[in-house]
Design brief:
Number of helices: 6
Structural class: alpha+beta
Number of domains: 2
Shape: globular
Bound molecules: zinc ion
Order of helices and strands: EEHHEEEEEHHHEEH
Strand content: 15-25%
Radius of gyration: 21 Å
Distance between the termini: 49 Å
Amino acid sequence: MLWGFNRAGKEDKRMGFFDKKDCALCGGKAGRFINYKLVNGEYMCADCRNRMSDHTEDISDMTLEEVKEQIRLKEENDARYQNEFEATRVFELDGNHKLMAVDDNRAEFVLLEEKNPTIFSFDQIMDFKVDLHTKVMSQEEQKKNAGLNGLMSFFKSEEYLSRYPELPNCPAGCKIVGMYFRIRLGENPFRAGKLEIKMLQGWSGYKTEVENAYRCADEIYRCIQEYKEG
Ligand SMILES: [Zn+2]
């Protein structure tokens, strides 16, 4: 039963299993299996952690007061997302996979993977890039590729790559196994450092998935660039 380790905030220090310390915030026992230890030695349960932004980092360096402030900020954020945030643009892989919404009137954005998205402003972006994960193709895969009418080669062709000069290319003899849009944030109320958007679930062999990933990554890239340069 390792489900607890797959939650957001991978770098947080956790207490061991079966630790029954009470949560300093709610006093609940919900955190019997996964507790977060704060800087002054108090414990917090997973439910209370989930009242903060998914993107909040370094929880183990926070005091109880700082945690309370983060929860307050997130509640304020959620109300603002419901009542004020107006998506003027939405970037999506396809109709079922919406990744990012932008409020151009406020120069703000949210990542839509989060259930109650955290609002960030474009001012807070320090850096952004697209990472491509590739893997050398085996002889067999090379043959299969030929069978797919050179599908892999298509994504390496001049014609295809010239459409997306800002995005990384897949090296010869390799296949694409992942694509991540990474955003590094400067100072922000939620103490978030990095945002990651998964552009591709994995190499499934479907051309449209890679094409959607490239197209959507390019749209997001251009959008951020507009804000940074404009
Ligand atoms: Zn709690």
